[in-house]
Please model this.
Amino acid sequence: MLETVDLCVSYGAVKALNGMNLVVPQGEVTAVIGANGAGKSTLMRTLAGLVTPASGQVLFDGVSISGHKPEDIVRNGMALVPEGRSTIPELTVEENLRLGGLWRDKSDRGASKNLVFDLFPILGERANMRADTLSGGERQQLAIGRALMSNPKCLLLDEPSLGLAPLIVTQILELVSRLASETNLAVLLVEQNAVTALRVATTGVVLHLGEVVKSGPAAEISSDEELRHAYLGY
Amino acid sequence: MTNFIDYLLGGFSNGAVIALMALALVLVWRSTRMVNFAQVGQAMFTTYVALTVQQSTGNWLLALVVAIVAGAVLGVIVFFLVIRPVKNSDSTGAIIATFGGLIALQAAAGMIWGGDPQGFIPPVDNAGLEFAGRTWPISLYDILVLSVTAALVIGLTLLFTKTSLGLSMRASAFNPEVARLSGVRVNRMLISGWAIAGATGAIGGVLIAPVSSISPNSFDILLVFAFTAAVIGGLDSLIGAVTFGIGTGLVISLVSGYSDSGNAPIVALILLALNLLLKPDGVFGHHGARSV
Model:
């Protein structure tokens, strides 16, 4: 579904990603974990088209999308939920959601909205309230809901646990993981919180200073003590 | 007391036009985070276009429609010619560029239509209405001006709150990155903002022309009042621009009535300074709206 080939991204002299190879298959959650500064957010921003890679390729459905604009990438079927609960506080819940799929046919949009309301019922109850009246967990649900409104084939989640209570994070991630297997959605999850991420993921990838140091089944990675001590700090 | 009421009533129509100009400034601010000082120049230019249409056809409504279209087109032209090249420079560069745009438009209008003030014949009578045994400071034309302004404000409100275009434009203004990630073509929304602002300013120009006459510089003072209203209103608030546009019109009318019309710009600038000292985010603005 989504693949990167020797992906390199630099900010001036700093190499944020150094030849990254990654495969994100359909129907499951792939978790990229690593400490602060490992290059996780850079990876997500590059995949979504906000950052242009220095070299290497991003393949989506086998077609190179490197250098495409973010608005085209999302219309093409890959949606990013950026770090920090990216809702627009001045808009209502319903407007935030509608924004996610404005270019689509009305009937298709309606179907997506029903799916989002089924998944996150609280958003239906709060539809006409401004997004800044929601709690942190509700806003994260709204941000994910907005991304789902584009009917993505691939969903990118950047650090969804940031600033949320562990229980809420687990609930949200379990919903996403169920959605992945039920609707054949490819999910790429980037997390500092390795324990929670590896619990819902099928495959785990450990990123350190812009390079993949290990990838494999999530259970294997979470039980590798040496790896945990060296790169994940717990 | 009669004087006071008369001065107040006389200020509404002027205030409506200031509100339209302030709206144009706010629309541009919301799309590109810059104040377009060329806005009154654009309105002056399109009002000349309207004058030409009216002189050759005698049809005011046609002249207004042509001005609206010309205003939208000119807004897009100014964006590409003046703003696009300086978009990535600092805000001082952009401000100077819009002033340059204003001067260029004034020079062009002078070359095409000459520098002498010309009259613009109103479509309906502009004399004070006779009612209840006396002459009131409001004319049939003032009522037309207020009606057109009200219709436009309602139209813009519906556009922004009810349509997909409006939602895309608001999202692009509040958070361009999230808008792009949601599939909105933010650049197009930005250009739409300049077009709608240009059309709004053009309506203001056509409406004020019969009262003020038209020359390449005749709208300069309008810039001072509209800028004051837009800033006090918070620069990114449509309601703020309308409220304080009309408010500024009333204050000018009172100042002119009780002292001299030459004092009005000074009072406007004092109000602006007080606002910036006491409530720098504007009355309707949200905190940080101007820090971008």
Remarks:
- The interface with chain B takes residues 48, 50, 69-71, 74-75, 79-80, 82, 86-91, 95, 98-103, 146, 150 of chain A (CB under 8 Å).
- The radius of gyration of chain A is 17 Å.
- Residues 166-183 of chain A form the longest helix (18 residues).
